[in-house]
Amino acid sequence: MSELAWRRLPEQVVAAVIDHPDPRVRRIFAGGHGAPMEHKARLADDPDPKVRRALVGAAVDFGFSVPEGVLEKLLNDPDTGVRREISMLPLPARLRVALARDPDPEIRAKTCVSAWEHLPAGDRNRLLADTDPRVRSEAELAAFGRHPIPVECFDRIPDTYRRESVAQSRMLARDLAERLATHQEARWRSRVAENPHLPVDLVRRLAEDDDSEVRRKVSTHPALTEEERSAIEVGFDPVVRYHLPAWVRARQDDAQFMRACAASSNVLIRRAAACAENLPADVVERLTEDEDYAVRLLLAEHCRQAPASLLLFIWGSWKGLSRHRLRAHPNFPRQGLARFADDPNPRMRELVFFDDQAPAELIHRLSHDENPEARWHALHDARLSLERVIELLQDPDPNLHRGAAADPRLPLETLLELLDDEKLAEPAATNPALPVETMHRLLDRAGVA
């Protein structure tokens, strides 16, 4: 059933799923990323609120664009959970205004800041006098806008997490900034150390803090000179994923500035520089040779000028999901990859399948590779023979034998036999080569009208 979430399904199957009597089936389909939102939009009228929540949750999680008419319908959904999910989406101003008037205080609190500049004075006053302290606090923060937040406003914030966020990002009154920068609890000093509006004298004070985490946070502050930055005693764990300073990427079009960042003694600033979409050739060269693996990884993931040699190195060494996105990079090699067929690194052997000139014999040989991912690539390669596709129905790896059962190259006779196979019936039922009358028979057997 999980294939409903990620596979692209024929239109007849989509229609059957949307009308399926079991809400679990509809919920799995609604919350998946396989079908485009226009195919799932009808589920905005689903009688089960869990299905409607899953529909909006998929838009939040996978970045689906929701038609404005569907958004308006869900904005008035009777289920609070659906509307809370909606509030997490990027919305037009008029819809944010509507959510700032929602009967649920959590939704009003979450949206009043982003809606504030579009709200009439009457709405603003109502939010400032709201019966819920979270809403009043958010309205007060919104009312200050870009002005410094005073101590009394900060102290009225009922949620500790939100106070930490304000300490970290908003312009603070001098007495509040001093209080946080000298706080006896290191977590408050750590939060305010990241605040880009913090006065430079307090930044320099935090650079000598006894707590290593505070020093690490302040070491990337934009107010410091490179000389001051390099003097801070701070260590970095090479395997930890640290938050990178946003102010570096904000100036990625300034070539001279990016040269300075790429040469910084602070590895987090170099990592942030590597996230730029475009960089001068000399900066790319410097970052390509950086001693920090994460700098090279980020350069490969983000920079259009990352060289082919770096892309291949990251392909072979990185285990993260972003590895597969490297193939879309304009500098990723598309020819000569068959030379990796005998590479001891199984990830490098996978490159053979991306070489259009690799012979069918090589694809067949790699379909027997000990690495199941190489066999998976072979199965989905048009150069693999039908005979070998049928053999892969017996592969011990579930992804392989299930994938083979769903392969449209299978002869109809074989495909129909698989529908009676306990292990392979489900993936075979998703095979797009199934005749329409067989699909209807399966749906009738499942009790779908």
From TrEMBL:
Database matches in InterPro entries: ARM-like, ARM-type_fold
Superkingdom field: Bacteria
Designated name of the protein: Leucine rich repeat variant
Natural source organism: Thermomonospora echinospora
